[in-house]
Amino acid sequence: MASVSRIRQSFKNSTVALALFTVNLILQFYSRKIFLDYLGAEVLGLNTTASNLLQFLNLAELGISSAVGFTLYRPLACDDYDTVSEVVSLQRHLYRRIAFFIIGCSAVLMCFFPWIFAKITLPLWYAYAAFVVFLISALLGYFVNYKQVVLTANQQEYKVQYSYKSIMILKVLVQVYALKNFDSGYVCWLVCEVLFAILGSLSLSRTTAKAAPYLRKSSKKFDELKKQYADFTIKIKQLFFHKISGFVLTQTSPLIIYAYISLTEVALYDNYMLMILGVMSLTNAIFNGLDASIGNLVSTEKTDRIMSIFEELFSLRFFYASVLCFAIYLYASDFVTFWIGPEYLLSDSTLSIMVAILFLNIIRTSAGAFLYAYQLVYDIWAPIAEATINLGLSLLLGYFYGLNGILTGVLISIVLIPVLWKAYFAFRKGFRRPFGIYIRTLVKHVLLTAIAMWVFSYVRICVPVPSAQSMFGLLSEGVISMTIFSLFLGALLYFTNSGLKLFVNRLIKR
What we know:
Elements: H1 2-39, H2 41-57, H3 64-77, H4 81-110, H5 113-116, H6 124-143, H7 148-153, H8 157-181, H9 185-211, H10 222-228, H11 230-260, H12 263-287, H13 291-300, H14 303-339, H15 348-373, H16 381-401, H17 403-431, H18 436-462, H19 471-494, H20 499-509
Helix pairs in contact: 1-8, 1-12, 1-13, 2-6, 2-11, 2-12, 3-4, 3-11, 3-13, 4-6, 6-9, 8-9, 11-12, 11-16, 11-17, 12-14, 12-15, 13-15, 14-15, 14-19, 14-20, 15-17, 16-17, 18-19
């Protein structure tokens, strides 16, 4: 029954997230075009840079939400609501301290804005306004939204999605209307950013209160809770280093591009990143709902069962990543041309590196989700090494090779640490199985995918298709082509006894 419940909750999480994601993605592409048409690439690049600076300050969060999440798996499974309330109360105390720290650091950072944004031609108040708006939205997470971790850990991520993400969709619609109809469109855009962040936070807080009425503020003081949950504090310190590597991976590239090139180049990169992040958001919508189920699985099942589920999820992620990344590689340039114009295109070599990074980021989480479920985060040298390799190589190669060099540094760091080391760590310390099992599985999937891509490309050359003349034609061609490719690749994986076969058979039985 527990297995059926996990499947049901995972399906509900993924379905709701996927529906909202689809609507939001369409709006994001449309709103990005409107933003560029009415405000220009430099304002967009400034927004991205201001957001990245704020994300740097958010490192102070230390990975507390992740530590709370996997600390709550067992007490929620056992209906131990007293423990749940105490852990969330400890989170509240920590978040209050972090929020005030971020406010202080932000005040200091803004003193340096005239130097940081010396290269822009826009009025400097644009930078201050954007940063303050993003700061307010972030602080709401520390003062209001933090309790949502209980819903996520309890396999109810779908409630977070519909109570918060639906309001964010409405925000984008209002922002687009403001840009198109008001002379002070950017000011209206910023005001909407704040107002809807507040509305979303209030909605999420209300949903959490209804779904988790057992949550109450603990009467115990901070020092008492900190001492009682000493292991929790240790996990936070360990997760801090993992958070650093994640920040370096996702947030520093635009800053380095700005330093070496310009805000306009940041905007070009960010346009492609909207597609990349769209795929990552789709990935999160489909797979993040499984994380709590994996935590529950690790807490209640034996290793053989856990390994079987890992094989299914790895194969499913690999199949999914292969199809979507191949589609982006084939059609991204044409898509950008129809979407915002050929003047916003990046080179094919840059696109190839970005697609490779996306592919590795999708499959890396196959082992990562299980590491968090096992609470195996004490390998703090790994994120330090990843961040060092990432930043060091990006700065070095970026100096000589520009944007391609920056992205190559990111790619190398992902291969060495998340893809190889994390899997090794999961197999040796979590599953307690030989690492060779993972290598054989990985190599088999790579070879089969390479064969499928070669055959598909060869047929595509032999049977030329007229170039699409519109966005609709391009999307239609892409859907048909990728459907054929996915069926071919899926058949190869299914009939070679991969985890995909286990997954499909499970769906048929259910």
